[in-house]
Amino acid sequence: xxxxxxxxxxxxxxxxxxxxxxxxxxxxxxxxxxxxxxxxxxxxxxxxxxxxxxxxxxxxxxxxxxxxxxxxxxxxxxxxxxxxxxxxxxxxxxxxxxxxxxxxxxxxxxxxxxxxxxxxxxxxxxxxxxxxxxxxxxxxxxxxxxxxxxxxxxxxxxxxxxxxxxxxxxxxxxxxxxxxxxxxxxxxxxxxxxxxxxxxxxxxxxxxxxxxxxxxxxxxxxxxxxxxxxxxxxxxxxxxxxxxxxxxxxxxxxxxxxxxxxxxxxxxxxxxxxxxxxxxxxxxxxxxxxxxxxxxxxxxxxxxxxxxxxxxxxxxxxxxxxxxxxxxxxxxxxxxxxxxxxxxxxxxxxxxxxxxxxxxxxxxxxxxxxxxxxxxxxxxxxxxxxxxxxxxxxxxxxxxxxxxxxxxxxxxxxxxxxxxxxxx
Length: 424
Hints:
Elements: H1 8-14, H2 16-46, H3 51-66, H4 69-78, H5 81-98, H6 110-134, H7 144-173, H8 175-193, H9 210-226, H10 229-234, H11 237-256, H12 264-289, H13 296-316, H14 324-347, H15 351-382, H16 387-423
Helix pairs in contact: 2-7, 2-8, 2-12, 3-6, 3-15, 4-6, 4-9, 4-15, 5-6, 5-8, 6-15, 7-8, 7-12, 7-14, 9-15, 11-12, 11-13, 11-15, 11-16, 12-14, 13-14, 13-16
């Protein structure tokens, strides 16, 4: 008989490994959103409020997260996932601390800030596959959905709380405070995660040099994903959202400067807090409302369309303060999409190649996000499209993309469901 899915507080009570991981990760994420708001404000000040400069920051962050993903997936399969997470946190603390020496009045130092932002995302690219691949190793099958929902909800709460507080703190005290808080948070997180025993079935790797054998494992991982239809279909779900969602989140930053809060940091903090509230409510909704796993693959596309609907309402209606609810709606849908697709991938994969699978998942998502952001920035900078016209265009296309995705995956998922029913 299948065990019931545990609750949130029950999971923290009965699973000490996950409890320590959750505490460490929460501290790291809370500090990170202080840092993210500060980076946007720093670039805005150093570039004299250039929309394109903010777009470049977005693109650099996405591409720096994307390009290393396949190799970092190999690292997560071959080496200790725990120590990869610890190392990524320690090096991130050093990178953030280096920003304390930046002169905000020296525009030539903007390239150093871009470089640090890219380095932080590269280290995040090491952390994410290790984190996602380790989750089934520290939880039981009946804890996996709750653990992922809780992890995603915590990321969202950190986004909401960190962005809101960070926005007002940066506005009042400057970016230096945010960088100090983030560096300390990374170090504390590393210390906590270092105490966790995370079991793992490691891939032994192939003979030859590290680079040669790694590329061999990359190829092997891609072949496994491509020849495993149950994984191949779901692995495009996050990228589907990012196809137009990347540009929409970039434009949310520009809206933050446009909504009349009196300060860019405060406006951005409020809208990112709404984004965090949405992505936090989504996983909680997924945990209690979407209990029929057989419907999850079909819902992934509809959730993307729902996210597009939220932004479409912002684009077509004249901005008012209560429109933050549309931001909450859009990102609640994206949060559910994230959690459901992550759990499906964890359940449909094997431990030996799970790290490479999640690195591919994030490669697709971040690459698409980066190109989406680039397209939005260039559209606004070099065409007659205004900010809200661009929001309308991207939102409508996101609605359509979700519908098309459902049509494409339905035949394969129906066949897979019949196959599973026969086996059971």
